[in-house]
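Internal QA ticket QA-208
Title: Verify multi-chain structure generation after dependency bump
Assignee: T.L.

Test input:
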Amino acid sequence: MRVHAKRALALCGLALFPVMSMADWTMNMSPGVTQTSNDIYGLHMTILWICVVIGVVVFGVMFWSIFAHRKSRGHKPANFHENTTVEVLWTIIPLVVLVAMAIPATATLIDMYDTTEADVDIKITGYQWKWKYDYLDDEFGYFSSLSTPRDQINNRQTKGDNYLLEVDNPLVVPVGQKVRLLMTANDVIHSWWVPEFGLKKDAIPGFINEAWIRVDTPGTYRGQCTELCGKDHGFMPIVVEAVPQAEYQTWIGEQRAAAEKEKELTQKEWTMAELMERGEKSYQSTCAACHQADGSGLPPSFPALRGSAIAVGDIAGHIDIVVNGKRGTAMQAFGEQLNEVDIAAIITYERNAWGNNMGDMVTPKEIFGYKIQQQQ
Amino acid sequence: MSTVADAHTSEHSLEQNHDHHGPAKGWTRWLFTTNHKDIGTMYLIFSFGMFLLGGTMAMVIRAELFQPGLQIVQPEFFNQLTTMHGLIMVFGAVMPAFVGLANWMLPLMVGAPDMALPRMNNWSFWLLPCAFLILVSTLFMDGGGPNFGWTFYAPLSTTYGPPSTTYFIFALHIAGASSIMGAINVISTILNMRAPGMTLMKMPLFVWTWLITAFLLLAVMPVLAGVLTMMLMDINFGTSFFDASGGGDPVLFQHIFWFFGHPEVYIMILPAFGAISHIVPAFSRKPLFGHASMVYATCAIALLSFLVWAHHMFTVGIPVAGQLFFMYATLLIAVPTGVKVFNWVATMFRGSMTFEAPMLFAIAFIILFTVGGFSGLMLAIAPADFQYHDTYFVVAHFHYVLVPGAIFGIFASAYFWLPKWTGYMYDETLAKTHFWLSFVGMNLAFFPMHFLGLAGMPRRIPDYALQFADFNMVSSIGAFLFGATQLLFLFIVVKCARGNGEPAAANPWDGAEGLEWTVPSPAPYHTFSTPPEVR
Amino acid sequence: MSEHQEYYVPEQSKWPIIATFGLGTTLFGAATIMVDGGQGASTSSGWMIFTVGLLLMAYMIFGWFGSVVRESRAGLYSPQMDRSFRWGMSWFIFSEIMFFAAFFGALFYARVFAVPWLGGEGDRGSSNMLWEGFQATWPLINTPDPSLYPAPKGIIGPWGLPLINTILLVSSSFTITVAHHALKAGSRKKLKLWLGATIVLALAFVGFQAEEYMHAYQDLNLTLQSGIYGSTFFMLTGFHGAHVILGTIMLTVMLIRIIKGHFSADNHFGFEAAAWYWHFVDVVWLMLFVFVYVI
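Actual output:
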């Protein structure tokens, strides 16, 4: 009896799936804001209902049998042990159901793979542990990192509403246009997923995977990295702002102007104070994940910078390791990722913070010259 | 004559061994044994120990995931926990448990005196503690243990892996060697040592499923060895199998790994299918429905299992033609699996059932494994999989097929065969308690994970967004309940083994059939030295 | 009913536990050598552990096979036992075939998918934008990133040493078959001659292969680090070479046993097992010759 009731309850829960999509007890995926995500939702609900029906029938027969065909009820065992007709039927019928399922699934999949005739091209690169977005048509790019304060993660502050799902620089895309995404990675495999777009694609280092979205509704959409990529795999979310096309064009214009201005900043004369201020900001967003906010690192994988031989040693060696990285370790070649201003600022900061107090500094112009020299 | 060096039985080994001794005395008996019952017992004890170790890791994982925020472990160590939990459960708990059941029961079921190659059998066992000693020791090495998931994708596991990765590779090589030799032994035993009159179609289902499992092991464990070796070479000798800079591809790793990995999951379930096919007829007092089609369905599943591996890779960017092929093949494999479920239900139907512990676990297996099969069917729909892949929906799926699937199958088998092994009945009330607590705990732990995945929670993360908090808390509570309950199982087994229960007859189960029930309980140290006639 | 010879089950044996220590120590030692060496530290402790492990394994192989040989010659093995050994050896060789299949699979994938994609062809051809200037060829005369994986200056043509090696191995399969027939016919002298010839051919193969490796490394700059071409070339031919060496050792042991008077015309499974292994090694070479050297 207990058996019967418990399992009936479980089945009811299963059947009430779509109804119970409330706040914290969300039980189902959302149909999303693209044609693809809606198609997927339809396939998902169809296969779910097929499974529910099969389950109800099969488990129903089982429960009936458990109830009625018990020795304690005096039921005597029958002796049959084969029936070719029945076996053929319950092989053919599931096969037919599955073929029926495969047809719309095939159509949706082929559509998802068609990346031709896109309006906008964006290259997405997964890094440990952030994303980089490069607008290929407009020749600018930027990093997008988790902006939830560490204090919230370490339970020293109350967690905000978008805890772990907020970034400093979201991806901006136009509504109603086909956006082609070219995914790759800088180091290990990552995966870019925004549930409401119905889009997930692995970012493979050395290769490009193409995908596309056409967002129908303006809004803010959040997702996460979905391929284990190291210690901060859970801390590199995705935020996408889908905006009307006019707003998008304005934003593009602003970004291009800002990129030009950054290039000019390389040439200006920087003071130590300015470099330290910029350096601290850049260090926290780029370097602190591994080397920690206080420079203590996580040896042996991530060495300490406070009191380290490199940070209090020869400047050339310090520049070299930041720009070129260290092969065979997780230290990336930041020369490719950061502009000259940030590199100079970070190095200056590292040499003077946490009691390192070297008193020297590196200017963006010096880094610019260093990079030119490297290419020769 | 000759000077034989073998243990203490130098002269005996050279004589016809008509007069069989009982087991040797002292603890070295276990080091030098060649007896399938001894070896089976060692496998089962080892696997349960590993189950508790992997389970403890799961408890820490669920404790960290009890609430949002980082409370107990840092992300680096969390990744080591999830990796080791997976490796230990797959290679240390589930697989050795089934090998232990095979060792105990296959010779008895086919009427053979022992396994075909008894010394190699013992070597297969002892390699496992060796492998896991090395594997677990990596947690204490500089840089920590493996932290890249039990699926150890490159380049996270190659260029970016900790120094201990090379030890991890060799530990798995050793475990793989153990499995390959065990599989050779199983196949040779089944094909060569059946009692006269036992044709292939007269073999019981547990023997059939193990024959097919052994074939799968022989086909894919070497492929795992291959990918491990490629990893070793990429890490230590500068090859570029998985590095695009040299013309390789990280996705190549995934293809080779999953070519092993998919048959591997069938390796982890087919023996359970076989055991359930013994238990359900016994407790329904009715023959298994469709014996022949059960055999064919198992063969079909095994063959198809080689053709579906890339359904673990739907999001990596394989060409659409490949994507479609793997979707179709994966959908297809649901058909023979469904046939098996229907056959079990048909066996129960119009039987005369009683519900002792083996039957409770068997019924839960049928229902809950099927639930896992349903989520598997959903995962097979490639476009939909883009939303499920690498989320908790997948975690829910494989825990349903592995926990109420493989693990409940092992519990059912253990209760079913404990009387034969020990000569005593286990405590039925305690066993039923173990069942119900496990059933509730397991469902509380894993059913909410379906919702978490659909709501958008990725896998392998130590901390999560606030909307996932409530189901995570429920899941953790269920996990703690399930984990604690397994200590009850330990108590039940020890109590039974010490003779604290009813003495068991040769066949304590009303409806059970087979050669194994014709020998006394406990089974004598040597059985079927002269093979029986099978009609 | 005819008399049924009981299936021999040894009562106890120390060899499995010794083998466990042996294999565990050897591989732990190997890992230590690689990890310490990779970090630039001294590898002497690793080499010591490795050597101890190898010695244990050698002791175990002598002891375990020795026991089996003695038991066989004492007449303890029934025809059923003989069949167990046959099944065992056959399925072992099957598992070895699957091991090679993994490497052939990698070669196939690299040539048909990965390299063309990196070069700009096919579904993932847009990857080429990450590797400017890389053109897909096979063998890889340039790699996507030559600073990490320097490309080789040349390749090993199939019609020189590899062709000679093919002739050597195919001939050796022939010679061992003649030896087998001689054994079955009871012609011991002919048996020793043809088995000896097989071993000589095998040793010649190993010698030529070593020479080919030296030529590759020194003259052609074709090494393990030469991109995916070097990786697949050396792993496939390397593992094959290792199996040839193992097979040669097995054949030599058989020759020694024959000289000592072991094996009869109707009871010689050890010889057959070594012969099967040898044919397997030969077939793998033919696959290699076609897919690694020729095509």
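Spot checks passed. The radius of gyration of chain C is 23 Å.
Status: verified.
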